[in-house]
UniProtKB/TrEMBL annotation:
Top EC group: oxidoreductase
Organism: Fervidobacterium thailandense
Taxonomic path: Bacteria, Thermotogati, Thermotogota, Thermotogae, Thermotogales
Pfam families: QueH
Protein name as it appears in the record: Epoxyqueuosine reductase QueH
Listed GO biological process terms: tRNA queuosine(34) biosynthetic process
């Protein structure tokens, strides 16, 4: 089996734009069983595919698997945003990415989760390194949101009309976002 270069776990199209402009290359892997509802998942996936075509990136397909997410975070439903539930979610997605890395023969992997200002970069990279160590893969830690091209990526996303979500993706973060919006009124 010939070794493929890099697999980039992608959580959404705006973060893919940020990572790409910051220099990330490789094949795209959209695995996000946390995204709820299904319509939101489909919308985000569609936008990732659109950006991947624009940048001429190959996409590795994965099934939508919300049952796995809910099983993984059972008992953590009332955790605050950014807490233990999020760490479990990062681990779920990065473990799946690492398994695809091994299965398809990639040299390394990383994630666009570090592009989002709503994610704890230290936690994401810590989880990525741990998963890599445990699975015998190579994780390339990064901080895409600190890229000098971050603002350019924001402008390009807007110019291209790329859908930008207003919550992390899971039903729990959606509930938090809705609660915050209703308290602002």
């Amino acid at each position: 089996m010939s070794l493929k270069c890099h697999l980039l776990h992608v959580c959404c199209a705006p973060d893919l734009v940020i990572a790409y402009l910051a220099g990330a290359r490789g094949d795209v892997f959209f695995y996000n069983p946390n995204i709820h509802p299904k319509e939101e998942y489909e919308k985000r996936k569609h936008e990732v595919l659109k950006v991947a075509r624009l940048f001429n990136l190959e996409v590795v397909e994965a099934e939508y698997d919300p049952e796995n997410f809910f099983k993984s975070v059972r008992g953590l439903e009332h955790e605050p945003e950014g807490g233990k539930r999020c760490r479990v979610c990062f681990e779920l997605r990065l473990r799946k990415t690492a398994s695809v890395v091994k299965e398809l023969g990639y040299a390394s992997f990383s994630t666009t989760l570090t592009a989002s200002p709503k994610k704890d970069v230290h936690t994401v990279n810590e989880v990525g390194k741990t998963v890599a160590l445990e699975t015998g893969t190579v994780y390339l830690a990064n901080v895409y949101r600190k890229s000098p091209t971050y603002n350019d990526a924001q402008r390009l996303t807007k110019l291209l009309g790329i859908y930008r979500q207003n919550y992390c993706g899971c039903t729990f973060s959606r509930r938090v976002e809705q609660d915050e919006n209703s308290s602002e009124r």
